[in-house]
Amino acid sequence: MAPTASRRSAGEREFAMRDADFRIIANAIYDHAGIVIGDHKKELVYSRLARRLRQLGLADFTAYLARLGGPDGDSERNHLINALTTNHTNFFREPHHFDYIKDVLVPHWKKRAAKTGDKTLKVWSAGSSTGEEPYTLAMTLDAALKGDPGWKWKILATDIDTNVLQHCREGSYPSSAISGIPKGYRSYCERDRREGVDRFVMSQALKSRLVFNRLNLHASWPIKNKFDAIFCRNVTIYFDGPAKQRLIERFVSMLKPDACLFLGHSESLLGARST
Ligand SMILES: C[S@@+](CC[C@H](N)C(=O)[O-])C[C@H]1O[C@@H](n2cnc3c(N)ncnc32)[C@H](O)[C@@H]1O
Q1: Residue 157 forms beta bridges with which residues?
Q2: Are 123 and 137 a contacting pair, CB within 8 Å?
Q3: Catalytic: which of 21, 67, 93, 159?
Q4: Ligand 1 centroid vs 176 CA: distance in angstroms?
Q5: Nearest residue (CA) to ligand 1, atom 27
Q6: How many Å lie between the centroid of ligand 1 and the Cα of residue 178?
Q7: CB 234 within 8 A of CB 129
Q8: Which of 100, 159, 244, 274 is buried most deeply by CB count within 10 Å?
């Protein structure tokens, strides 16, 4: 029988996780989502999954792997992915990308529309996490385009993690997060009026601009239209070189000829072939 927390000696783990168990989990995440989990992340994997084993009433990681390989394996794999993704994000993260949209791309799109008569825009936040990035995009576009009637624009927000997507859909954030939103944009945030709730929600008008979908960047993309801009920031840092290369090529094929791909500051195309 597994020792209870009170009987366990210092350093003894609640659930046995052999190195081989860890490798199988790391390989499953890599094969499915392209996320590389090195040996130095063993403790992190253990602590994130221990909660799940407790929830399922399992004795150890061998039992967990049996569940992953069993009839409920597909749905368990989603739990595994949700537990192991890194979702850190915030509003107006790497703010000069949004200045670039406002100061360079919007004027360019307006000129283009004056020539073609086409006032539609599509932007993709790929790896949108809990929504701060797509809502920042929506605030930026709404504010920059509202003086010029007739624009139809949508933002596609996708992530592999179903928990963060649900958060994204709700568009509800703790009041403390508002400090990351410049004062001129705070009219898009409405106080959550429920008793005892210290949160704000993004306005319905803004939410109506967003489309949320679960999408694994390493699987097929059921997307037909091309984009004016793709944001895929702080996502490829978890992938290896070949996976990153494939992804960049696929993004390029989804961009209109004058469109932009935004990567995070710590990501680069160095080492990726030019096409
Ligand atoms: C660190 S967050 C970045 C959020 C936001 N783009 C930003 O820069 O603030 C990385 C996100 O990428 C998502 N992700 C990781 N692998 C993915 C994959 N294969 N397909 C789709 N999303 C993935 C994670 O679930 C996570 O929400």
Answers
A1: 125, 212
A2: yes
A3: 159
A4: 23
A5: 129
A6: 22
A7: no
A8: 159
**Residue 186 annotated as catalytic:** no
Residue 5, classified by CB atoms within 10 Å of its CB into exposed (0-12), middle (13-18) or buried (19+), is: exposed
Give the tokens for residue 231: 């944001």
Residue with tokens 């168990």: 21
Residue span(s) of the chain under CATH 3.40.50.150 come to 96-263
Amino acid 29: pLDDT: 96
Pocket of ligand 1 (CB under 6 A): 33-35, 85-89, 93, 127, 129, 133, 159-161, 164, 216-218, 233-235, 238, 264
Q: Which two tokens stand for residue 252?
A: 């390029």
CA dihedral over 247, 250, 251, 252, signed as positive or negative = positive
Catalytic residue flag (residue 52): no
pLDDT in tens, 233-254: 999 999 999 999 999 999 999 9
For domain 19-84, give the fold: Chemotaxis Receptor Methyltransferase Cher; domain 1 (1.10.155)
In the chain, CATH 1.10.155.10 covers 19-84
Which residue is closest in CA terms to ligand 1's atom 17? 160
* Model pLDDT for residues 93-142, shown as the tens digit of each residue: 999 999 999 999 999 999 999 999 999 999 999 999 999 999 999 999 99
Q: Which CATH class is domain 96-263?
A: alpha beta
Ligand 1 center to 143 CA (angstroms): 26
Spatial separation of the C-alpha atoms in residues 77 and 223, rounded to whole Å: 24
Measured at the CA of 169, the angle between CA 95 and CA 209, to 5 degrees, comes to 65
